[in-house]
Design a protein that fits this description.
Length: about 240
């Protein structure tokens, strides 16, 4: 049975096991990971955290693992007992305002020149796409989004900036993303959203979860400022179920 499993086991730490799938990221694999993650939480005791990646689940126990073989067998049994063909998709769609004004879009001119598209064309293509949230990291609230139009693919910077602004909307390689806080970053900045992506004081610090979809709509720099000074900027976040 182990030979036909789609994932392999690695004990990364005395209290951590990594399940890694040897396949390309996809919407189907994402649903499988989320469904298995949910069921592992329900069927195993002593788990402190499960971290999901593009093609992996990192399962962390509160204490050191003393029965590795038993845990592996239980994980295998659980995996084969699940019906992945009828996973209910419970997701939301979020439409975020983005200002593509040159004040924020400090790399837009260079990017558009290199990929031989006008700045208006870059903005149009960027806002027409629907992006899937695959997972959240490397910063709290940083959404890893899949779905960037291949016409906008552009390499990350060779030397990262040390002060990428909060809310920066950027392109790096085959992905687009949003910096939830000021931080170092090597992606190419094409705009900025005034919507806060992470609030540690809320029960759900990030409004989006893996499996949700995201799109962007353009706003003016005046509208950006208005949203920033509004007492409830999340009211400008357009949610569609």
């Amino acid at each position: 049975m182990n030979k036909t499993l789609p994932f392999t086991f690695f004990q990364m730490h005395p209290n951590m096991i990594l399940l890694e799938w040897q396949q390309e990221p996809s919407s189907g694999l994402l649903q499988e990971l989320l469904f298995l993650k949910k069921n592992v939480k329900e069927h195993f005791n002593g788990i402190s955290q499960i971290t999901q990646g593009y093609c992996s689940l990192l399962i962390q126990w509160k204490d050191a693992i003393t029965n590795l073989s038993d845990i592996k067998n239980k994980l295998i049994f659980l995996y084969w007992s699940l019906d992945f063909t009828s996973i209910p998709e419970k997701s939301k769609h979020w439409n975020l305002p983005v200002c593509y004004d040159k004040f924020f879009a400090i790399d837009l001119e260079l990017l558009s020149s290199k990929i031989k598209l006008s700045k208006d064309a870059v903005i149009s293509i960027h806002t027409q796409s629907i992006y899937k949230v695959y997972f959240i990291g490397f910063l709290p609230g940083f959404l890893y989004l899949e779905g960037l139009n291949s016409r906008l693919f552009f390499p990350r910077k060779e030397s990262p900036r040390m002060d990428t602004p909060k809310g920066a909307v950027a392109i790096g390689g085959k992905q687009t993303g949003i910096y939830p806080n000021q931080s170092p970053g090597g992606w190419n900045i094409i705009g900025n959203t005034p919507i806060p992506l992470f609030d540690p004081n809320k029960k759900n610090p990030c409004f989006a979860v893996p499996g949700d979809t995201v799109s962007f709509y353009p706003i003016t720099i005046e509208e950006h400022q208005l949203i920033l000074t509004n007492g409830n900027p999340l009211s400008y976040l357009k949610e569609k179920k």
